[in-house]
Design goal:
Radius of gyration: 20 Å
Largest sheet: 4 strands, mixed
Distance between the termini: 37 Å
Number of strands: 11
Mean pLDDT: 91
Strand order of the largest sheet: 2-5-3-4
CATH architecture of the largest domain: 2-Layer Sandwich
Length: 309
């Protein structure tokens, strides 16, 4: 798995409280709830991610934690940029800083994975938790015994500048419940469906090819690899793409993009397009007729950062 972090963040803040209450707040979503400060909050909406993190931390320290836990995420939920996992990592980071918990990067990423996938039973992989925690450009290896190895890639700055210039991030103004798409992908693979299995192997091979292209500065190959990946990903599950996403993708290709992808599980949210030379301007113009907006970003080396004052 090849992954890079960008300057779009999930922010979390904790204020300890004297009274025995827990206030959970998601400022970007306009949601807030106040509950008695017990060691285990009901795992339900609203703010189920906040509740899941709170419960796990309380179980670790063995007592309730009266506090005001607030968050803000720079991108919409369900958009395919690992929003939920990044938020969970940020929430854990806030507690680690407040309570001085002895957790390293691998511990935090693993804890975030367990909260989402085990405690909250939300379908998905584990790459987003590690990407958000570690930051930078990484090649991640996942093993059957649940071991994870994060390998930071040393890429020349000019290669990253060129890649950043040539990649456009477009939000389609649609969201989706990624768990449903992921469950369909899993069921196809578990049943041994030939098309889905072959496509999954191709996607794995493309990660190795993209890693080599990045390290050797063959940046324009990335557009071709993304295009092959887009075609293969559509073969894994029926809802990865939609008529609207297909229309947007074809418009971008006709304007000069050589490839692209639907972020995350697919079905909506963000799309990423590789636009060589100065075709980014033509692609932006072509997509202006669709409902949606572009997000500006930069590649960043840091992952989870926490502090107190």
């Amino acid at each position: 798995m090849l992954n890079a972090t960008v300057s779009l963040y999930a922010h979390a803040s904790i204020q300890p409280l004297e009274k025995p209450e827990v206030t959970l707040q998601a400022i970007d979503r306009g949601e807030e709830v106040t509950l008695p400060a017990t060691e285990s909050l009901p795992l339900e909406e609203p703010l189920i991610l906040h509740r899941g993190v709170y419960n796990r931390i309380c179980a670790m320290v063995g007592k309730p934690l009266p506090c005001h836990l607030s968050s803000y995420v720079d991108v919409p939920p369900g958009s395919g940029l690992g929003t939920s996992s990044t938020l969970v990592v940020a929430l854990i980071g806030a507690f680690v800083e407040w309570l001085n918990l002895p957790l390293g990067e691998y511990d935090i990423a693993r804890l975030a994975y367990e909260i989402e996938r085990i405690d909250l039973e939300q379908a998905g992989g584990r790459q987003d938790q590690y990407a958000a925690t570690f930051g930078g450009v990484n090649f991640m290896e996942f093993y059957a015994d649940e071991r994870v190895i994060v390998n930071p890639l040393r890429i020349r700055p000019e290669y990253l500048y060129e890649l950043e210039h040539n990649l456009l991030l477009f939000y389609t103004e649609t969201s989706r419940y990624s768990s449903n798409i992921i469950e369909e992908q899993k069921s196809h693979i578990v049943r041994g469906e030939k098309t889905a299995l072959e496509a999954t192997h191709r996607l794995k091979e493309e990660a190795f090819r993209m890693k080599e292209a990045l390290l050797k500065g063959r940046i324009n190959e990335i557009g071709e690899i993304l295009h092959e990946g887009f075609e293969n990903k559509r073969r894994v599950a029926s809802h990865v793409s939609t008529p609207l996403l297909e229309e947007i993708y074809q418009a971008a290709r006709q304007a000069g993009a050589t490839g692209g992808k639907v972020s995350g599980a697919g079905g909506g949210g963000f799309m990423l397009f590789y636009c060589p030379e100065n075709t980014r301007h033509l692609v932006r113009k072509a997509l202006s007729s669709f409902q949606g907006r572009f997000f500006e970003y930069h590649f960043v080396k840091h992952g989870l950062v926490s502090w107190h004052f």
